[in-house]
Amino acid sequence: MAAQPRSATAWLWLLTVPWFLLHVPARGPGRCGGGSRLSLSARDDSLLNGNFAVARADRDRGLWRPPPGPPSPTPAPVAAPLAGGSSTAPSPRRAPRRLTPPQRPGLRKVAAGRLSAAMRALQGTPVAPASQATWRAAGAFFPPATPTLAPIVSVEAAFPAEMARAAACGALAAATPALSAEAVTSATRSLGRDTAPGPSGLRPEHLWALPASGRDALVAVVRLLAAADSTAELPTPAAYALASADLLLLVKPGGPGADGQHELRPIAMPEVLRKLVATALMRSVSASAGAFLSPYQQVVGIPGPCERLLKEVDAELAASPRAAMLQLYFKNAFNLVSRSAAPAVIDRDLPSLSPYLAWVYGRGAAAVYGWRAHPSRASPHPLAHPPPGARDGWRRPSAPTPPAARRDPPPPAPPAARLFLLIERGAQQGDPLGPLLDAAALHLVVLRLRRQFPGHTVRAYHDDLTILGPPAGLAAALTTAAAATHEIDAVLAPAKCAAWSPTPQLAPAGLQVPWRTQGIVQFSVPLGSPAFVADHGAATAAGHDAVLAAIDALPAEELLTQLLLLRLCAGPRVNNAVRCLPPEAGATLAAHVDAASRRTFLDLLTTPVDTPATRAALTTRAAQPVADGGLGVGYCSTVVAAAQLASWCDSLHAGPTYSAALAEVATQLGAAPRRPGGADPLAPPPGPPPAPPHRPHHPRRAAATPAARPRPGVSTHLPARRRRRL
Question: Is 70 exceeded by the pLDDT of residue 720?
Fold first, then answer.
């Protein structure tokens, strides 16, 4: 392909062979389309002989399938303990349990090291049923393109000042070099394990297993898909196939809506090759993109952007108590925003991404694929159904048929076609560059608001837009934002927008969004009265209890998995809330988290016969850091004050460069008296340690150094950290 990028046959084999040879075999009869499990050599023989149906007969049908088997039976009640002794029946926790559907993928993700994904799977986000109602709801996420959409010429004419700023930033930025082999290798290693493949079935594990010649070919293909002079030669069918993705529809938490349907969350699983190209390009332009978007759009190149925005809001409202805060949310912004706005900005500021956008978004609409249509609703094959009077699928003649009169059996019915939706607007689902494209288009709205309302603070994080300032100007800012979003084909969601002020006052005249009196929620953190903050903290604690319940529900033989999830998932889940809540609310939430974590920990490791002293010793040891032999479970209350101080220090180090409110806070803290000998939390971090004194080079000594001679059996192509471990 690198030598002949115009060859459609080569691209066809690249995207077809993994689907036939490297697919995941079915784990049970309910997941298999038919046939027994085949070996890799048997699949290879079937593929080379043209028996494509046999090569994929044992392929796993995925999540869009009927549930295999009956539901798990209800466990029998446990006998009460006898007087003076323990129960003869095992406790509910020690009883063998059958894995539930959410637990199976959760444990597989734990084995792959993807703990956050494992917790999402264990909490049982159900897959939407494969029904017509679900598919109609999915179609609402991806509306078709209409002639009224804004072309690129109208976007450039509507935002001349913003386009000039993008061109100026692009001129100041250094030229982005071509993707190197090291960049492609680093992007390949960053792809997560046990991730779902795209329509071709290619996985990151397949790329990791390539030999040296295969890795060189992979680098050449990635460079081909990122270079301007070679993407023009890419065949249109190959570009269409690489841009497609499989679609998964999950049910959002909460009950059904007024129409009786649950809200859906679409998740796309794109091709690994396209994901690899986009990941490598994103890493190469992250610095330039961050320089253009920040500080108004804090998406790229800023660590902890949500915490910084929350601290800036706190500082602004503390400095101006009568100021108000306006939250703007966009309706389905990722799938509705103009495809003309993002390229207009990218071509000026990040021209190295233009070749990728040309073959991914400039060659028509790509598709996302759902489940296969029901056989009764699919187009029937003329020989798919047996004639009348047939038995066991075919008619049995009453007398033997002469050999000359025999006919070959009809060909099997073709499989039902898969349902699909065309992505004609917005960023494509699953594209690693999709968030950057969405932010670049919405940044035009942010820049216009910043230019027309200099007395207000305008900040955005993806499609969450915040405006802080005098309440009298919020109505005009809302009108300007609505007009600007219409020019990039975006739509505001009035039901989600809201305004609030810490000082009780009437809503500004002409403001067409709800005016909150108690408080408002920003990035899942409450801002408002103590009662409002306490209620939201209780809801956060209830969500943490649900996580602990999902961990405790795992079978007893998965004890190490439970302890791992308890240490690395359950506790850190509330870190953002603990760092950003007010001190009193943060301490209350930390105390609840510690108490609930200790109860779960004791339930995992103790029995009713253990003494209180044993339980106390276990909880004390578990609360210690891992470096000291503990587990770090139940220590949140100990570090909550330090965590909140560290969050403020991080914001105050970077915030004064762009925020007047944070600069004022840093100035006041710098002028405050300190204890004798106390450390300055706002002092810049210490520099690197001084270099050791130079020693003259000695060839013989250098040759005898162990680091200069690689150990036998240890590859020199491994990272230095891994070589040291070996």
Answer: no
CA triple 244-250-252, angle to 5 deg: 135
**pLDDT the model gives residue 364:** 77
State mean pLDDT over 289-307: 86
SS3 label, residue 60: strand
Q: Cα–Cα distance between 554 and 646 in angstroms, integer?
A: 35
Q: Alpha-carbon distance 569 to 505, whole Å?
A: 41
Q: Across-strand partners of 526?
A: 521
d(C-alpha 463, C-alpha 226), whole Å: 27
Beta strand pairing call for 515-516 and 498-500 = parallel
Does pLDDT of 453 surpass 60?
yes
DSSP alpha helix (H) spans, 350-430 = 354-361
DSSP state of 32: B
Among candidate residues 442, 507, 510, 522, the one with its CA nearest the CA of residue 477: 510
295: preceding bond cis by omega (within 30 degrees): yes
CB-count burial class (<10 Å; 0-12, 13-18, 19+) for 424: middle
**Nearest Cα residue to 441 out of 337, 362, 352:** 337
Whole-angstrom distance, CA of residue 251 vs CA of residue 126: 6
Give dist(CA 528, CA 534) in Å, integer: 10
Residue 687 has pLDDT above 70, yes or no: no
Supply 67's token pair: 């549930």
pLDDT of amino acid 97: 63
- Count other Cβ atoms within 10 Å, centred on residue 331: 15
Q: CA-to-CA distance for 464 and 458, rounded, in angstroms? A: 11
446, 297 contact by CB (below 8 A)? yes
* Per-chain mean pLDDT for the chain: 79
Beta strands at 464-469 and 324-329: parallel, antiparallel or unpaired: antiparallel
Phi, psi of 206 (to 5 degrees): -65, -35
Q: Hey, where are the domains in the chain?
A: 1-66, 152-366+427-526, 529-670
Beta carbons of 371 and 64 less than 8 angstroms apart? yes
